[in-house]
């Protein structure tokens, strides 16, 4: 318990500093958070001085051999806070020397490694985790000053060096407890009133909290609630959509990630493809013009002419000469002044899950999206089939043949997009492609003698560095994909197989309802009722 107490104390130092700071942190953890007039906040870009390692078995072997803890930085290119951490923490020579001396530092890209986000779910960006050489987590932090970082990590290092065996024992017990929790079957009520209470406890769509708490649009939740049969759910979805519209960029369209109050007036200006796709799905039934504007933003800024969608647009403007112009100022400008200064960097990587989401959103709402967007969605799916899918297994990032592949979210989202293409065009090829992905999921991700699917293929050979997990939300979406596929397939063995698998996956995910967003639980219940009616 002493080791745990030390870690909690260290975490408390970071949390207290972040909560009560009056401005000495450079807008890292809590976004803009100020109602002062906007001004051009310009910074000279500084180099990252930390000698980062890649996430490989060799890095973990080095940590084990030297008995050093691992410092894991999960960073995101679209995140203002990640950029600022690079400029303040990792560009500090004292911090870089301290890290090199005391840790094996590993840095991963959040978009490239969604499997690590599931294993070490971040509470803020960037996610800083301190791990044992085995990969078991000891502590979690986020953006902080160099002085606070050294204070926080020094407490953890002191406790670990004093009693390393106690830290290992505590980590093993924590992992066993998490595994037992994941295996626990708990029936969660899915009647209308229970679902309503669960959602209300989690989310008040139009509420505005104090300026320190971010306000997210929750477009995925809004879209799911709109598709249920409950009148209260649709009312809540419409209320949420009206609030979320305040995050729309009034000049170019597209939605920012979140804002802080009052009035959602201080947005975090990064734009991710995933949010745009869910915005189209959520807004199409209630505000078609806003959905159309979002599609237009994606086509203008994120569409790849060869097919595909870029993953994000940066929150800040990197100007020539290594100067950073803060997004809080840049995105407050009218279109002509923005264009005169230049455009924020677009991350041109193509990720399977997000590309599937966007193609599906366009094809499901083709009358709103328009012919140009529909052609782009079709080009996207054709390109993924030609270049990014082999034997029913999709690459996570199109240009990385040796990167992550067969990720459950990638397979599911592309499969759903192919079904949307089949629904729009009746193309037998689209249905065959969806079926191939479903068969690939069964081959690569099914658990022997189990009802669930892994989030990624089981590791071969070495190590703890790429463990797969059973994720209830991902399995719920796989159940939705299988059910829709089974509804389309002609009578026969494949139709029966995927219908049965859809039911078993839904049951497995639904009995872990505490781990699901209640909006997804409500949508699953509605899908099950529709499926039973069809059968």
Short synopsis of the structure:
The chain is an alpha+beta fold and 535 residues long. It has 22 helices and 14 strands.
Describe the structure.
The termini are far apart. The protein is globular. Helices cover 53% and strands 9% of the residues. The strands form five sheets. It has a four-stranded mixed beta sheet with strand order 3-2-4-5, with helices on both faces. Mean pLDDT is 86; it is low at 1-37. It has 535 residues and is an alpha+beta fold.
Task: Quickly list its features.
single chain; 535 residues; alpha+beta; Glutaredoxin; Glycosyltransferase; four-stranded mixed β-sheet; three-stranded antiparallel β-sheet; 22 helices; disordered N terminus
Through-space gap between termini:
55 Å
As for the number of domains, it is 2
What is the CATH top level name of the largest domain?
Mainly Alpha
What order do the strands of the largest sheet run in, or round the barrel if closed? 3-2-4-5
- Count of discrete alpha- or pi-helical segments spanning 4 or more residues: 22
Helix fraction?
40-55%
Could you describe the largest sheet, including whether it forms a barrel? 4 strands, mixed
Give Rg in angstroms.
23 Å
Count the beta strands: 14
